[in-house]
């Protein structure tokens, strides 16, 4: 049993190291949590909030509190505390990503198939990017629409263009077209979906969480890290799997079960994503930091005038 002084927000693992963050994200990206009903998630949130207020229900174990925090972190937005759309949660990346990516890798030969699955993928990505944005920077429906159309157009242009260009290229090159389209679209989709952070700046705080102002440079740093992480998340499955499939499809037994090639790729992509989702999220700290000396001159001067040299770094939620 635990006492009322239990700090439920204290990290279970060291967030300053990659391995510590990896354990953390393995915990909160657990895809089995998407199977739980909203009522169970709301119970977890209530327990977390009670613990924060120093009111732990009698008989509650530390294990129960850790599990409640796991559900809370996996399903509720860190900025607003609101329950996130199930499809947009990082815990849905494995089932959602494996189905869509497997289809993109399987149906890459014809233009209509490429167009359809790239559209499905960018619709999924747009929802994920919106769900995991920094909620302190609101975005209008019009901006969401522009971001979605721009990213989808980029992905389709890349995929269709490369698909036509690789008609005479080695078969393996054509299999890598979906990854090129996904990577290029991520470079557009995420910044566009989070454009308000870039235009108006993102809230930065001191190490105690006290807000110090808004920084555009901090927003660019955080979003750049997210773009890199998302591309890294997709890379192994979309680069290595085509090599595997090209080789095994030459065997007679695989030629007899062509109808299973799609499901096989979906399952193999899932195997990659089970590890790559938490690994990619762990590349950079969630609570990103930036030296005051690298901030915009006006914000830097504001902080120096109020705190002198007492504040050397600012902190902000980079989103996922």
Automatic annotation (TrEMBL):
Sorted alphabetically, which Pfam families does this protein's record hold?
SFXNs
Q: Name the UniProt key words of this record, in alphabetical order.
A: Amino-acid transport, Membrane, Mitochondrion, Transmembrane, Transmembrane helix, Transport
- Choose any GO biological process term that the UniProt entry carries and state it: serine import into mitochondrion
Protein's membrane topology: Multi-pass membrane protein
Which GO terms of the cellular component aspect does the record hold? mitochondrial inner membrane
Subcellular localization, as worded in the UniProt entry: Mitochondrion membrane
Where would you find the membrane-spanning parts of this chain? Answer: 227-245, 266-285
Citing just one GO molecular function, the answer is: monoatomic ion transmembrane transporter activity
Under PANTHER family, the record lists: SIDEROFLEXIN (PTHR11153), SIDEROFLEXIN-2 (PTHR11153:SF14)
Q: Which NCBIfam families match?
A: mtc (TIGR00798)
Similarity-based family: Belongs to the sideroflexin family.
Q: What name is this protein filed under?
A: Sidoreflexin
């Amino acid at each position: 049993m635990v006492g009322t002084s239990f700090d439920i927000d204290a990290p279970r693992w060291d967030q300053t190291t990659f391995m510590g963050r990896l354990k953390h994200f393995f915990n909160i990206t657990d895809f089995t949590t998407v199977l739980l009903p909203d009522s169970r998630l709301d119970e977890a949130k209530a327990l977390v909030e009670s613990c924060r207020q120093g009111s732990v229900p009698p008989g509650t174990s530390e294990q129960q509190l850790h599990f409640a925090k796991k559900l809370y972190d996996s399903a509720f937005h860190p900025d607003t505390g609101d329950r996130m759309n199930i499809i947009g949660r990082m815990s849905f990346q494995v089932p959602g990503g494996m189905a869509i990516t497997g289809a993109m890798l399987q149906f890459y030969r014809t233009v209509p198939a490429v167009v359809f699955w790239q559209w499905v993928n960018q619709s999924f990505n747009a929802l994920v990017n919106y769900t995991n944005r920094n909620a302190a920077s609101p975005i209008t429906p019009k901006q969401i629409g522009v971001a979605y159309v721009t990213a989808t157009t980029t992905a389709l242009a890349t995929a269709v263009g490369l698909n036509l260009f690789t008609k005479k290229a080695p078969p393996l090159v054509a299999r890598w077209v979906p990854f090129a389209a996904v990577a290029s679209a991520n470079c557009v989709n995420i910044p566009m979906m989070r454009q308000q952070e870039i235009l108006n700046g993102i809230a930065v705080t001191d190490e105690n969480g006290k807000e110090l102002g808004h920084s555009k440079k901090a927003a660019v740093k955080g979003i750049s890290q997210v773009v890199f992480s998302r591309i890294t998340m997709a890379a192994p499955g979309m680069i290595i799997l085509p090599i595997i499939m090209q080789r095994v499809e030459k065997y007679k037994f695989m030629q007899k079960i062509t109808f299973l090639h799609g499901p096989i790729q979906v399952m193999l992509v899932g195997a990659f994503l089970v590890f790559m989702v938490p690994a990619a999220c762990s590349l950079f700290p969630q609570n990103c930091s930036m030296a005051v000396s690298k901030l915009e001159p006006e914000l830097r001067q504001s902080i120096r005038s109020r705190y002198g040299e007492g504040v050397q770094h600012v902190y902000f939620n980079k989103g996922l």
